[in-house]
Amino acid sequence: MSVIFDNTYARLPERFYARLAPTPVSAPEQLRLNTDLAAALGLDPHWLSSAEGLVMLSGNRVPAGAAPLAMAYAGHQFGNFVPQLGDGRALLLGEVVDAQGQRWDLQLKGSGRTPFSRMGDGRSALGPALREYVVSEAMHALGVPTTRALAVLRTGEAVFRETALPGGLLVRVARGHLRVGSFEYFAARHDRAAIETLTNYAIERLYPDAAQASVPALALLAAVQEAQARLIARWMQVGFIHGVMNTDNMALSGETIDYGPCAFMDHYHPATVYSSIDLQGRYAYANQPHIAQWNLARLAETLLGLIADDQNEAVALAKALLERFPRIFEDHWLAGMRAKLGLETAHPGDADLVRDYLQLMQAGQADFTLSFRRLSTALHDDEPALLALFSGQQAEVQAWLARWRQRLTLEASTSEDIRTLMDQHNPARIPRNHQLEAVIEAAVDREDYDPFHHLVDALARPYRSDASLAEYDRPPRPDEVVRATFCGT
Ligand code: AMP
Ligand code: MG
Questions:
Q1: Hey, how many other C-beta atoms are within 10 angstroms of the C-beta on 214?
Q2: Other C-beta atoms within 10 Å of 411: how many?
Q3: Nearest CA to ligand 1 atom 23
Q4: CA 387 to ligand 2 center in whole angstroms
Q5: Which among 87, 105, 248, 278 is annotated as catalytic?
Q6: What's the CA gap between 404 and 432, in Å, rounded?
Q7: Which of 158, 289, 411, 427 has the most CB atoms around its CB within 10 Å?
Q8: How far is residue 41's CA from residue 36's CA, in Å, rounded to a whole number?
Q9: Which residue, among 247, 297, 190, 198, has the nearest Cα to 75 in the 3D structure?
């Protein structure tokens, strides 16, 4: 059984993309196939693992029914507009529809040069491909909307960055690869017809309810805003820092996209930045909601002509909508944070309770993930494991715990319920930077892929306590701390 494609994006006008086949690679080898995801997509994992499947996933042959293309898009990178970016090292192979009728893009990332490659080679090193596999699948298991990883391959070829590195290829799956930058591409060209086509396409594919609204473009903007507010709240709740929230890396679907220099925080600090190129901290942890709103404003600008004929009226409508972002974000954030504290009901003062705990983490340089995970052990009087995470701050944390326990008395739930709720919202393990680096080093330097497989497996059930995985749960020792990440493109 091969793959049945149905390619809607390829049926859009020709100026939306460049059609081309992937550039073959010399000796592809499948390192991991995501069999659960394959099955969910209605693809046969056995076929994908076969020689024929490998030929397709490596891009060495275009399968029947596929219509490979590089999507055109622009983007604001670190605030500066670049009118042409586009898929420079990726190709949309085609779309598949699962048993539930959900449509998915299959994309080959690292598939060779395209008309959008500029100075790049269109390839990916193995390290970043493994990194994206681990982190995107971990995000999915954590319950964060994200693009997925169907497979990762070694290409058998070298790519040249600062040195020669083994080449890799990631097969990425998404509900849709439309980005804010897709709209900006046509807005920069004053191509109103294209914006209209793209808007209708986005509505039909991602937010069909918006078609019924009196102003569909405004309803699309509202839906994207809702999806982004929800997404960024989830990032904040698991300590995720995207690292490069350029408008070309913001998907209309509300999926996390582009796992370049991203990282999970170890100890909590709102100003945390890992990306080596984010010198101003534009994409720092605590800045992410603000940047999402900024990016949404860039999307809104491209839609003005479809929102109202009168420019002033269009601006007023879009502005009124975007002003709601902080409120929508805060609601999602607080709802998730309440669950992390074991709270099912809402009371005034809950936001302060959360913020005060974060403040204590910051002052005590406490590990973000474990400070929440171990909180349930301190439901009663068993505090040492939690207190050990804070340097100093012992009396302050104890005073906060007393406040928290007092707040919990307003809940009808039993201690058991509270513990269960907390353990379902506070992961025991996240993809820690030092673990990721170790895995990539083993694969790239020693061709040892076992650590990669073990890490992927360990992160598949992040909310389950498992003594055998204790090594993955612990924060880095001082000598293991990773301070900077690189996109490695
Ligand atoms: P990114 O920083 O990954 O969001 O990529 C920004 C732009 O650079 C996109 O247009 C990418 O397609 C392009 N790009 C990144 N890496 C490469 C590469 N190795 N070859 C060609 N284009 C690339
Ligand atoms: Mg990108």
A1: 6
A2: 16
A3: 88
A4: 40
A5: 248
A6: 28
A7: 427
A8: 9
A9: 247
Nearest atom (ligand 1) to Cα of 248: 4
pLDDT digits (tens, 9 = 90+) for 138-182: 999 999 999 999 999 999 999 999 999 999 999 999 999 999 999
Atom of ligand 1 nearest to the CA of 73: 10
pLDDT of 391 reads: 96
pLDDT at 2: 82
Q: Do 264 and 238 touch, CB atoms closer than 8 A? A: yes
Task: Tell me the ligand closest to 278's alpha carbon.
Answer: 1
Q: Which residues of the chain have pLDDT under 50?
A: none
Pocket test for ligand 1, best of 89, 257, 276 (most atoms within 8 A of CB): 89
Q: Where does ligand 1 bind, in terms of residues with CB under 6 Å?
A: 85-89, 116-117, 120-123, 244, 248-249, 258, 260, 487, 489
- Report how far ligand 1's centroid is from the alpha carbon of 144 (Å): 24
CA–CA separation, 214 and 204 (whole Å): 15
Among the bound ligands, name the one nearest to the CA of residue 82.
Answer: 1
For the CA of 123, the nearest atom of ligand 1: 19
Which residues are CB-neighbours of 126 under 8 A, at least 6 positions away? 154, 165, 166, 167, 168, 440, 443, 444
Residue 51 backbone phi and psi in degrees, to 5:
-60, -40
With contact defined as beta carbons under 8 Å apart, do 127 and 165 qualify? Answer: yes
∠ CA 143-208-194, rounded to 5°: 110
Report if pTM > 0.90: yes
- Count CB-CB contacts under 10 A for residue 102: 12
Q: Which amino acid is at 474?
A: R
Residues counted in the chain: 489
CA–CA dist 463, 324 (Å, integer) = 32
**466 labelled catalytic:** no
